[in-house]
Amino acid sequence: MAETWLVVGLGNPGAQYEHTRHNIGQMVVDELARRRGESFKAHKANARVAEAWVRPGGAKLILAKPNSYMNVSGGPVAGLAKFYGVDADHIVVLHDELDIPFDTIKMKIGGGHGGHNGVRDIAKALGTPEFLRVRVGIGRPPGRQDPADWVLSPFSGEQRTQLPLLVGDAADAVELVGDEGLLSAQQKFHAPRA
């Protein structure tokens, strides 16, 4: 039987947040669904879900976007994990990362939350931090801008032109995790782009 992965894109609900840095995780999940011609449907775990496969005969992907605000993502993620019978080591959480430069992706399993309240809440709700994180770099704000304002603002014009590449790379990374595992994905995507 094929493996099942719960792939969660973090973000905030509502049109005013749709194109902000904080919602890049949801942008990636949207891209994964778009590639497969799938649309999201309401789920009782307070999320929108699309079911797909990495490729025919490959791992199953439960693509999810919590309806809750970022800081309380844990409830929907834990509910989906229970509903689909997915263990923490087969949960992939896509989120924005201030400490990684824009246009960079880093992946890891477990560890601390690095001040990311969405990741903190998921670890608390699951009772373990041992889930995969695809950390999509948004970089630090310029000057003295408050990081909270930075993550809730849209990408700059120059970044918007590069955003489809970054979102595509993060989607490719998730597919590779589903196909070959975390180590293969890290080896490919942690290297600088040629």
UniProtKB/TrEMBL annotation:
One of its GO terms (biological process) is protein quality control for misfolded or incompletely synthesized proteins. The keyword Ribosomal protein does not apply. It is an enzyme of class 3 (hydrolase). TRNA binds at residues 17, 69, 71, 117. CDD domains: PTH. One of its GO terms (cellular component) is cytoplasm. It holds the Pfam family Pept_tRNA_hydro. PANTHER family: PEPTIDYL-TRNA HYDROLASE. Monomer. This is Peptidyl-tRNA hydrolase. It comes from Microbacterium mitrae.
